[in-house]
Amino acid sequence: MSDNPYEVLLEALPTDARREETLPELERRPDPWESAMQATCECLSWRGTLDNLERRHAEDALGETTYRDFPVHARSAVVTAHELMERGAFTPDELRDRMKLIRERLNRA
């Protein structure tokens, strides 16, 4: 296991993923999971768990450094998970286990 507790997030980047580079790629209609993610972030902010402005600042900083290889639209999810792990909401092992369960469920369909 890595000394980096956020390695679990970096493992989520598919080998064929690429960063959007053109305006049409960036100016697309959000996928349903992205809209749900934004609603979740709003709820986290409303309940005082993760302020939207703090999350956006973290997304700017981490999105251009640690998670720069992730597609722009996926960064919100990984940065939110990063920030929640940093605040002790769950551990890297708990996230890894949950991600494994979800992948298994999606592969059954």
From TrEMBL:
Matching Gene3D superfamilies: Nitrile hydratase, beta subunit
Nitrile hydratase beta subunit-like N-terminal domain location: 30-104
Pfam families from the UniProt entry: NHase_beta_N
Signal peptide: none
SUPFAM superfamilies per the UniProt record, alphabetical: Electron transport accessory proteins
Protein name (record): ScnB
Source species of the chain: Mycolicibacterium agri
